[in-house]
Amino acid sequence: MPRTLENSNSLKNRAKKVVPHMTGTFSRAAPSFVEGVFPVYAQSANGSHFIDVDGNEYIDYLMALGPITLGYNYESVNHAIISQLKEGILFSLPHPKEVELSEKMCEVIPHADMVKFEKSGSNVVTGAVRAARAFTTKDKIAYCGSGGVWHDWQAAMVSRDNGVPKFNSELIKLFDYNDADGLEQIFEDNKNEIAAIVLEPTVYDKPENNFLNKVRKLADQNDSLLILDEIVTGFRFDLGGAQKYFDIKGDLVCFGKGMGNGLPISAITGPSEFMKSFDELWVSSTNNSENISLAGTMAVINEMQEKNTIPHCWNMGKKLFDGWNQIVSKFDLDAKMYGYPIRMHLQCFDSNKQESIAMKSLILQEMVKSGIFMSVLGPTFLCYSHTEKDIDDTLHALENACEFVTKNVKESNYEEYLEGTMPKIYLVYEN
Ligand SMILES: Cc1ncc(COP(=O)(O)O)c(C=O)c1O
């Protein structure tokens, strides 16, 4: 039976009337994909696969924008959730789970003496910035990522930053990844004013010329805190996160996404010297001690420890990454995976060597039609439930997509073969 998207489209039309931007997360909304070809609503998911509202099944590589590290509908996590549900979700007092999970995180995360739980990655980055300002009594922040950082809600250079007071932009200083000199210049120009450096330890580029150690040193020399945004790298690159993987030390380290395998939970960790700032800060919210997420996250970390799940993700990722790059080279297409086997990104260049979202959209359009769901604008992620067969099926679909492209496309006219609209770029990378 040919694939239809009837139910997806009808839900989308209803959502347009009642939900701003059709859904609460920009990167999940229809315009982030090839609209008209990609499904718009998911119904259910299991392991590494999901089923859309029209009954079509896909191998997923977006993993709910990153949180799914073990797999969907994961048995031991479900079990923990269900038993906690019977005990209670939220109480008038804290529950032992908050202490137990904090102890567990201090065991697995380097340099963590204390843990503060929150509900989203944005909240913990915003909270860590607040704590750094309070601790240092300075106001300015050096942010890595000149292409757009949006995770601190108060930062005046977030993508789509209308509504953030303009004077805030005076407080934000930007530098590029791997540009330690640029960061040094910021300290030079803003003497004794920088409360913290906020850095994602890596996105797709690898650290070069001792970059991470230089950043650490600049923070120390200038009495600034180093806030590591490990929302994506945490519980994905290593159980100890990027601090362990790259052997660096953050002062306040932010986790989210992968720690909960889809549960709404995030955390800030660090040495007590800095974490104790939260004793006196109103970074506090009713649902922060919600126990389903605490119990489920404990089950996620236990499973990662017991089954040593992360190396499997690296192995499956490597099979996909290498296999992909071999196939596109065979077809002479400049459409390579780039980054890490655990967090990769497809980069396509047309015959004029220009980066081409149209080319990427066309390849991924052909693949989604054969049941492979990869994000056009975002990353490709692996989880513990991806199998060798998933990767083989994906590479097979890629062969077919490359065949279609090389047979039909002439002089980079990729757009002519799109059966829907090109994705709208709101962000430089994922949200
Ligand atoms: C590196 C990074 N930090 C923070 C966030 C914000 O997390 P959340 O979407 O849970 O608020 C994201 C979201 O994609 C992210 O990629």
Automatic annotation (TrEMBL):
Superkingdom to which the source organism belongs: Archaea
Keyword Cell wall biogenesis/degradation: no
Biochemical pathway: Porphyrin-containing compound metabolism
Cofactors required: pyridoxal 5'-phosphate
Record SUPFAM superfamilies: PLP-dependent transferases
Catalytic reaction list: (S)-4-amino-5-oxopentanoate = 5-aminolevulinate
Gene3D superfamilies, A to Z: Aspartate Aminotransferase, domain 1, Type I PLP-dependent aspartate aminotransferase-like (Major domain)
Keywords: Aminotransferase, Isomerase, Pyridoxal phosphate, Transferase
GO MF annotation list: glutamate-1-semialdehyde 2,1-aminomutase activity; pyridoxal phosphate binding; transaminase activity
Record InterPro entries: Aminotrans_3, Aminotrans_3_PPA_site, PyrdxlP-dep_Trfase, PyrdxlP-dep_Trfase_major, PyrdxlP-dep_Trfase_small
Family: Belongs to the class-III pyridoxal-phosphate-dependent aminotransferase family.
Protein name per its UniProtKB record: Aminotransferase, class III
